[in-house]
Design a protein that fits this description.
Elements: E1 2-8, E2 17-23, E3 26-32, H1 41-46, H2 53-57, E4 67-69, E5 78-80, H3 83-101, E6 106-110, H4 117-127, E7 132-133, H5 141-151, E8 155-157, E9 165-169, H6 173-176, H7 180-189, E10 195-198, E11 211-213, H8 220-233, H9 239-245, E12 246-247, H10 249-256, H11 261-268, H12 272-284, E13 288-292, H13 294-297, H14 303-316, E14 326-328, H15 337-341, H16 348-351, H17 365-375, H18 384-387, H19 392-401, E15 409-413, H20 417-420, H21 424-432, E16 436-441, E17 453-456, E18 465-467, E19 475-479, H22 492-502, H23 514-523, H24 529-535, E20 537-539, E21 566-567, H25 593-601, E22 605-610, H26 627-632, E23 637-640, H27 642-648, E24 655-660, E25 663-671, E26 678-681, E27 726-734, H28 745-758
Parallel strand pairs: 6-7, 6-15, 9-10, 9-13, 10-11, 12-21, 15-16, 16-17, 22-26, 23-25
Antiparallel strand pairs: 1-2, 2-3, 4-5, 4-17, 8-14, 18-19, 19-20, 22-27, 23-26, 24-25, 24-27
Helix pairs in contact: 3-22, 4-22, 5-14, 8-11, 8-12, 8-14, 11-12, 19-21
Length: about 750
């Protein structure tokens, strides 16, 4: 029997809608669904991921059954076990470890996109452990924190027909997103609306811009303050809005006075004229929109001051909660993520022992509680676990030393920390010494290869999808599963519910299935699951100018800050060890004088490094096992500018080594337009086709940039704990050896083509 069913892709956060043709419980065809959000033919034409859904559904390399380790950790020897046997064994081991060390002995790691965050968070809360690690400190959290402390809540860009200027800062939606938003950016690039792209690399997005500004890595805060300097000095700020709704303008104006275009030009390595031009476009626009991304979120100590400076730039021009500029979002009508997590059920004494306190005074439960008291004035509450996640440095220390208490067990959900966490050698050694590791994933990743249990996760098309932006916006999108999970795969909700019940959490898991849970989530908004699946989304457009709404006294309610106004000079950040005004911080140095001297002695160079750039069709450390993808982008690459290549005597296709004092990795050289004082290093590369276990662990030691990085809490952002993936110094030099990757015929074919192009 053939039947066409609605479903959604989940190879990125966009969740495009599809029609799946199902025959005998198997998907045999997949076509875009033009009737549901977010259909757009140009988006689908430009995406190389969605067509792999059928391959992934029944791929030879999928984990289909629960596996238990046999023999030494990392030996890649497994026995197939039943779900009951796996869950019984895991629950027994966790119970024993909790009895011996306390509930905080369990830590967790979560990534995406094939994960739902709140089921893991609920499980951890019910278990009594605060030690969940995620990607928050290096993605999204820094902006959300600074938005909340400056405006009272988070904001989202609102690019529409009213928009008269657009800044795209530290993000490349052409590669990382490929969404309707990217299509809108392309349209703006072809219009009369000024488009400014700020990125040290000349990206595909930058190619659409009227003005490309390429600052030195890690100097974005100074650049934003330079824009503010011009806008204030030339009287382009919104005087009425500033007078009524901004706190500390005089203090801020005095602060930015020294960030003249000439000073910024020297500090950032940009043109003073470009600083003036961009600032004037932004200041003169009736509505100017600004979008920032991971380029800022992964800049360590500079992350908080840069986001603060950008907030101030929006504020002084009146581009806050304004159509065509940005909108202050609203809590969802449906059940929020903060409620689904059930963090309030965890005892205070457990929260107090989270491995972030007191080292990250904002990103912790105590800091969260202080901010909550402010945001709740307007009925808003941030997702708790995401904003209080433990710090990897401190969790690893607890694994290594038992201080302040032993962390002996780890659950890894939809992430591959041996590739994606900083300081791979340290992560590997810490994890190898644990008593219990449980990995929930699609594949036998390098991390899965050292686990005690690998549990097969249902993926796109096999489970319902409900994307809700952390519960800080009144929108959700996704749809139903097309089929029941193949083989013995389960959704992460089903896995954590079952494990929770084995550990006495039955009352916390009243819904038998994920679909049942989502039915209940939507009920508050007055929508059924069937209605949601038919539309592909729940959305209620936010209303602008909410700060003008009357409060209970009839006066404008203002902003949910300590002063009721936008805080250019912050009254709350000093409570967390922060600064009243945004100030650039020095970049991280991981290269000793000795390392630099050795590199230069053999013709190498000391340069700034960026590691977080995304490259379609890959997504972080995922999808390298797809042959079609590998053919289009077959090798781990390092990019430098033509001038730098010429100075160092390097050519496209050369093998180069990139190193810091933490370690080294080798890549194939590519030459691209970018700043001359930097390198861009591909992120997350491994060999999925290799045997995942010892000794090579999927080739993760050869071309893994995180062998060069650190998550040290001492060098990171002091309030949030953000570590450095960008603006790190490194050395680069040519090596005469070929990479193992270059034995692949796809790699040879592509490398030869690159060399021909270089000629």
């Amino acid at each position: 029997m053939r039947e066409v069913r609605k479903t959604n892709c989940h190879f990125c956060g966009y969740l495009c809608a599809f029609h799946a043709t199902v025959e005998d419980g198997r998907v045999v065809d997949l076509e875009p669904d033009p009737s549901r959000y977010p259909y757009d033919p140009k988006v689908l034409a430009g995406c190389r991921r969605w067509k792999m859904n059928l391959d992934v559904l029944d791929g030879d390399d999928r984990v289909n059954y629960p596996l238990r380790r046999v023999g030494e950790r990392g030996a890649n020897n497994w026995e197939r076990v039943s779900w009951d046997e796996a869950l019984d064994d895991i629950a027994q081991r966790l119970s024993q470890l909790r009895d011996r060390y306390g509930s905080e002995t369990l830590a967790s790691m979560i990534g995406g996109p094939h994960a739902s965050f709140w089921p893991l968070h609920r499980f951890m809360n019910m278990f009594g452990s605060p030690n969940n690690m995620g990607i928050g400190q290096i993605c999204w959290n820094p902006r959300i924190w600074m938005d909340a402390l400056t405006f009272g809540w988070t904001i989202e860009a609102d690019i529409n027909d009213d928009t008269e200027c657009v800044f795209i800062w530290g993000t490349n939606p052409a590669e990382s997103d490929n969404s309707l938003w990217w299509q809108s950016i392309r349209r703006i690039g072809k219009s009369d609306t000024p488009l400014v792209v700020i990125d040290p690399r000349y990206t595909k997005t930058a190619s659409c811009a009227d003005l490309w500004i390429a600052p030195k890595t890690g100097t974005d805060c100074a650049l934003a303050l330079g824009f503010a300097n011009v806008i204030i000095a030339e009287g382009l700020y919104d005087r009425d809005f500033v007078e009524q709704w901004c706190h500390g303008f005089d203090e801020f104006a005095a602060h930015v006075a020294r960030y003249t275009p000439e000073y910024v030009a020297e500090f950032c390595g940009v043109s003073a004229d470009d600083v003036r031009t961009a600032a004037r476009w932004f200041g003169r626009a009736q509505a100017a929109a600004l979008v920032s991304g991971r380029g800022i979120d992964q800049s360590g100590r500079n992350v908080a001051p840069t986001h603060r400076a950008i907030c101030c730039l929006r504020a002084i021009t009146g581009n806050v909660d304004k159509p065509g500029a940005c909108i202050i979002t609203e809590m969802s009508d449906f059940t929020t993520e903060v409620e689904l997590e059930m963090t309030d059920e965890m005892a205070p004494e457990h929260k107090a022992r989270c491995l972030n306190t007191p080292f990250t005074p904002l990103q912790c439960y105590e800091g969260y509680a202080k901010v909550q008291k402010v945001t709740e004035r307007l009925g808003c509450r941030l997702p708790t676990r995401y904003m209080t996640s433990a710090h990897p440095d401190l969790v690893l220390r607890a694994m290594e030393t038992g201080e302040p208490y032993p962390v002996r067990a780890l659950i890894v959900n939809a992430t591959n920390p041996l590739l994606t966490y900083a300081d791979t050698h340290r992560v590997f050694n810490a994890l190898m010494g644990l008593d219990l590791i449980v990995v929930i994933d699609y594949y036998l990743t390098p991390t899965a290869s050292i686990a005690d249990f690998v549990l097969p996760c249902a993926g796109a098309i096999e489970r319902p999808l409900f994307q809700q932006h952390g519960g800080v916006a009144n929108i959700a999108y996704g749809g139903p599963a097309a089929v029941e999970p193949y083989y013995e795969r389960r959704s992460d909700y089903d896995i954590f519910r079952a494990l929770g019940i084995h550990l006495g959490q039955a009352e916390a898991w009243p819904h038998e299935t994920f679909k049942d849970a989502l039915e209940d989530v939507l009920a508050r908004a007055g929508m059924t699951w069937e209605e949601y699946c038919e539309r592909g989304m729940y959305f209620r457009p936010p209303v602008p100018f909410k700060y003008l709404y009357p409060d209970e006294t009839g006066n404008p309610r203002g902003f949910a800050t300590t002063t009721g106004k936008i805080e250019l000079a912050s009254e709350i950040l000093p409570d967390f060890g922060g600064q009243r005004l945004p100030e650039p911080a020095p970049c991280l140095s991981l290269c000793s004088d000795e390392l630099i001297a050795r590199a230069e002695a053999c013709g190498g160079a000391h340069l700034a490094m960026v590691t977080g750039a995304r490259k379609q069709p890959y997504n972080a450390s995922m999808y390298f096992n797809n042959p079609k993808f590998r053919k289009s982008s077959p090798h781990p690459a390092v990019e430098i500018s033509p001038a730098t290549a010429q100075r160092l005597g390097l050519r496209a296709g050369d093998t180069v080594e990139v190193a810091t004092d933490k370690g080294s990795a080798r890549f194939v050289l590519e030459v691209r337009t970018m700043r001359d004082d930097m390198v861009n290093v591909d992120y997350g590369w491994w060999h999925p086709e290799w045997t995942p276990g010892a000794p090579d662990f999927g080739g993760m030691w050869e071309s893994n940039v995180n062998c060069l990085t650190t998550c040290s809490v001492a060098t990171g952002e002091p309030m949030i704990g953000t570590w450095w993936y960008n603006a790190i110094d490194c050395v680069i030099r040519k090596v005469d050896e070929t990479l193992s990757w270059q034995d692949d015929p796809y790699v040879k074919e592509r490398t030869d083509a690159d060399k021909d192009d270089a000629r």
